[in-house]
Amino acid sequence: MATKHLFLLPGDGIGPEAMAEVKKLIAVMNDRLGSGFATDEGLVGGCAYDAHGAAISDADMEKAMAADAVLFGAVGGPKWDAVPYEVRPEAGLLRLRKDMELFANLRPAICYPALAASSSLKQEVVEGLDILIVRELTGGVYFGEPKQIIDLGNGQKRGIDTQVYDTFEIERISGVAFELARTRKNHVTSMEKRNVMKSGVLWNEVVTQTHKARYSDVKLDHMLADAGGMQLVRWPMQFDVIVTDNLFGDMLSDIAAMLTGSIGMLPSASLGAPDVKTKKRKALYEPVHGSAPDIAGKGIANPIAMIASFAMCLRYSFGMVDEADRVEGAIAAVLDAGLRTKDIMSDGMTEVGTVEMGDAIIAKF
Amino acid sequence: MATKHLFLLPGDGIGPEAMAEVKKLIAVMNDRLGSGFATDEGLVGGCAYDAHGAAISDADMEKAMAADAVLFGAVGGPKWDAVPYEVRPEAGLLRLRKDMELFANLRPAICYPALAASSSLKQEVVEGLDILIVRELTGGVYFGEPKQIIDLGNGQKRGIDTQVYDTFEIERISGVAFELARTRKNHVTSMEKRNVMKSGVLWNEVVTQTHKARYSDVKLDHMLADAGGMQLVRWPMQFDVIVTDNLFGDMLSDIAAMLTGSIGMLPSASLGAPDVKTKKRKALYEPVHGSAPDIAGKGIANPIAMIASFAMCLRYSFGMVDEADRVEGAIAAVLDAGLRTKDIMSDGMTEVGTVEMGDAIIAKF
Ligand SMILES: CC(C)[C@H](C(=O)O)[C@@H](O)C(=O)O
Ligand SMILES: CC(C)[C@H](C(=O)O)[C@@H](O)C(=O)O
């Protein structure tokens, strides 16, 4: 079996603590199952800026490009609030997404039965929730040019960002959404603001055409993004797969994540296109949560989203479906047994730290 | 007392039904209190397109510009889904906002005690909720140029929208937010995506400067818009006034509206700058809900948001604070008495239609 090359980018804040638990799991899989993972590690975000003056070094970018998969922790913190825009911590993540061409961001919002009660939504509204948000990740207002601040004189400045989408970008992301829907409840909802944005008009048109040409067996709905946000809060169970652009996806996936009761639980996968010859796709896996600088270093961060991101990596990058199921099963089992990190703690449960949570999941694996 | 000129634009779908209840209230106020309202009426949205081939005629635009205040119902419906982009129903509303320079959109999200149970959020999370979203309404990606679809050949098109903000636009909208905060809990949260957007960087900078120069007595927080959306769902009571741009405001105000249990309840005001001489400001008042074509003409639409929009009109355009309080009190009293339209119906309450709800509110006025 060929060695599986993982490149780890723990980043800032709670990133390294959460990643440490994944490293333990990788070691166990290598020892017990001979899974053949080789890991290398780099810097991204504020720590990379401190070391190299850039949010990710060219050397680490090369390693990320060469790896079979990248595991990413989190970036940012108040320490770097005042660094120049071009080298801010987030620039490292954005460069990874862009240079690796990770256009498809998969964000499942799953409500673990054991946690349904901790949502701010009524239990009956979120229990059993299982949505997949497919977010376009390399286009839109995140990368369009011009993107600049112009000095107009007289104390006036002008801030400009550009939302741009081409047909092929919308086609390929909606293809991913339709394919995934076929493995689920066969229902895609596409969201944009076609009543205000020309990119939304094109988005709507291309999704409709792609559906008609190749995926007419899948149920397709269109919703305006503002109405979609509202419907997510009102009755999230109506959705199966949601496909949307980079900026709407950023907002909507965070809202969907919050419905589930804890953003500390949710993983994501960012995938490139399959290589024409090898069929392999570049991939990066990261928790939906951020670097949480306020609790960093205290040993209380929830490592579940990071571990669940590794489970997605097993599934999507290595086809290790059994192992992925086992990791996800171990997470559910530990929650059922009543273990909770501080962010998801509730009456009658047992509060544990990051390391104990990681150990408990590995013990159930 | 000078005549108060109201220009009514009921629009499409449930707009006319909801507006009819406001007309009755206006007649009662003229008769009983001698309030001196003169009303004129025009067409906007799909009905204007059917009549004139435009989403609002120039003649009606002139009347809107000349009125003391505009009352707007709702626009759009499947009938006009295929009309050209330039004359789609929403274009009428966008032209009104732009030509009248209504840069400040005030969207209160108030949870009526009688309705707290009908929210999809837990009652304790939303009971007593009182947030004001101040949305910039004449700038950003809604109006920035270029805004177009380019044909690239080879079956490829490119959709482009441009997000633009100038210093003065951010300054004036944040001024509105700070002023309003002083009449409330004195707390403003500004939301943008400065980690990705240059307009967000400028937004953050200008809000910070405006605060420092003129409103340092008000508590100011900054939040990334995605995190803000999440926090709205997690713990909305942490907010007092939220100030944000046109597109984020569109999404966030809809989500905030949904928290309250019914979007059929919520009014909004769109205000221009006070005239240097007369101090009067152009204004348009509209419910947050849309045209709801599926229930139009059935006599079951909830007229409360439209009536509450008229209450905002009394307050902001005519300084009729007592009368505004009385209208809002009548709405609360009718809800306390157990009357409900279909959209907010729950066990043990009395279901009524649009007309009965309007009559009941007028009876309590
Ligand atoms: C960190 C930031 C640049 C990023 C984004 O806006 O995409 C984050 O919010 C996310 O959703 O992954
Ligand atoms: C109808 C539409 C153009 C409008 C908007 O996007 O602003 C609506 O959603 C609103 O929020 O008033």
UniProtKB/TrEMBL annotation, chains A, B:
Pathway participation: Amino-acid biosynthesis; L-leucine biosynthesis; L-leucine from 3-methyl-2-oxobutanoate: step 3/4
Coiled-coil annotated residue ranges, if any: none
Major localization listed first in the record, in broad terms: cytoplasm
Cofactor: Mg(2+); Mn(2+)
Residues carrying the site annotation Important for catalysis: 142, 193
Catalytic activity, reaction form: (2R,3S)-3-isopropylmalate + NAD(+) = 4-methyl-2-oxopentanoate + CO2 + NADH
Stated name of the protein: 3-isopropylmalate dehydrogenase
Binding site for NAD(+): 77-90, 290-302
Gene: leuB
Record's keyword annotation contains Transferase: no
InterPro entries: IsoCit/isopropylmalate_DH_CS, IsoPropMal-DH-like_dom, Isopropylmalate_DH
One Pfam family of this chain: Iso_dh
Enzyme nomenclature, EC number: 1.1.1.85
Cofactor: binding details: Binds 1 Mg(2+) or Mn(2+) ion per subunit.
Keywords linked to the UniProt accession: Amino-acid biosynthesis, Branched-chain amino acid biosynthesis, Cytoplasm, Leucine biosynthesis, Magnesium, Manganese, Metal-binding, NAD, Oxidoreductase
Organism listed in the record: Mesorhizobium ciceri
